[in-house]
């Protein structure tokens, strides 16, 4: 396994450096905050210590209990950001043998709405979703569910979702309204989240590395095959909200959004292959957000 040792493991940017996470962890780590992850393949049975609870919405329990897949990766990423939060695995992404993910669009939206309704009833504090965008025809109904959740105090951090009440994360990249996946969105994302990091990749995403080795290619450093995924932005942002709400549980979704946006900063990526020197606005500084929240509480003290 020494071939997987990264020579630059302590010099690359990570979620922690870009978003000032260690400064936030000095004050809060998400204790007592319930964060639901709508996904599938959580491997709950083999990772019981990771989850505080779990529920199957789809009627296909294996999606909850089997397979070390996307849901498990999201949970591990969330645990890294908010290590004391309570993670709820919500199997809400349908699967059918021989049917493409895109063909399941309406069924996905139906289960997504059911998952949101379950989260409201179960008093979940933060809800993340890191799968494909909702079909245009289904967005009004999903949007209504998000509005209901937010009005009941649930902060949603769904990727590919420009609904006005959703706290919408994007990757640390310049946002282009004219690019393929963004053309049917009506607004820009709220904040940007660092989206390539190898802190958790060896646990659940090592297949690509092993394939590279099988081809006889030598891995010199993490830059040879960087972790790159929009999916991770949702649980990372959900973890940031959990940190804030563990300090002040009464924070509304709108207040969480305002705090994260107002304390964000502009970053220019460096040393990340094809992302070099791309300006990125509104990168979250959770350390500054925590400090600002604590200072505001002190001002209100008698």
The CATH class label is: Alpha Beta
CATH topology descriptor: Rossmann fold
The share of residues in helices is 25-40%
Number of H- or I-type helical stretches: 11
Oligomeric composition of the shown chains: single chain
Task: Kindly state the number of beta strands.
Answer: 9
| Estimated share of beta-strand residues | 5-15%
What structural class is derived from the secondary structure elements? Answer: alpha/beta
Q: Major sheet: size, sense and barrel closure?
A: 5 strands, parallel
Mean pLDDT: 84
Strands side by side in the biggest sheet: 2-3-1-4-5
CATH homologous superfamily placement = Peptidase S8/S53 domain
Described by the principal axes of the CA atoms, the overall outline is globular
Q: Which architecture does the CATH hierarchy give at level 2?
A: 3-Layer(aba) Sandwich
Compute the gyration radius: what is it? 19 Å
């Amino acid at each position: 396994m020494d071939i997987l040792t990264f020579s630059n493991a302590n010099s690359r940017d990570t979620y922690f450096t870009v978003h000032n996470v260690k400064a936030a962890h000095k004050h809060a780590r998400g204790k007592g905050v319930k964060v639901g992850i709508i996904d599938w393949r959580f491997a709950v049975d083999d990772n019981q210590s990771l989850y505080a609870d779990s529920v199957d919405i789809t009627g296909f329990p294996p999606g909850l209990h089997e397979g070390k897949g996307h849901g498990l990766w999201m949970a591990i990423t969330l645990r890294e950001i908010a290590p004391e939060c309570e993670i709820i695995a919500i199997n809400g992404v349908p699967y059918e043998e021989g049917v493409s993910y895109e063909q399941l669009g309406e069924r996905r939206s139906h289960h997504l709405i059911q998952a949101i309704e379950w989260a409201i009833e179960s008093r979940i504090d933060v809800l993340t979703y890191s799968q494909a965008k909702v079909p245009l025809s289904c967005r009004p109904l999903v949007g209504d569910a998000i509005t209901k959740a937010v009005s009941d105090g649930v902060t949603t951090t769904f990727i590919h979702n420009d609904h006005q009440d959703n706290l919408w994360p994007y990757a640390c990249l310049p946002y282009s309204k004219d690019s393929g996946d963004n053309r049917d969105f009506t607004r820009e994302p709220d904040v940007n989240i660092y989206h390539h990091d190898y802190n958790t990749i060896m646990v659940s995403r090592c297949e690509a590395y092993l394939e590279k080795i099988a081809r006889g290619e030598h891995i010199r450093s993490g830059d040879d095959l960087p972790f790159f995924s929009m999916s991770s932005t949702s649980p990372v942002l959900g973890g940031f909200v959990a940190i804030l709400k563990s300090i002040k549980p009464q924070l509304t979704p709108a207040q969480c959004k305002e705090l994260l946006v107002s304390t964000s900063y502009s970053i220019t990526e460096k040393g990340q292959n094809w992302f070099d020197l791309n300006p990125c606005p509104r990168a979250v500084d959770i350390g500054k957000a925590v400090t600002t929240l604590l200072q505001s509480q002190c001002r209100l003290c008698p």
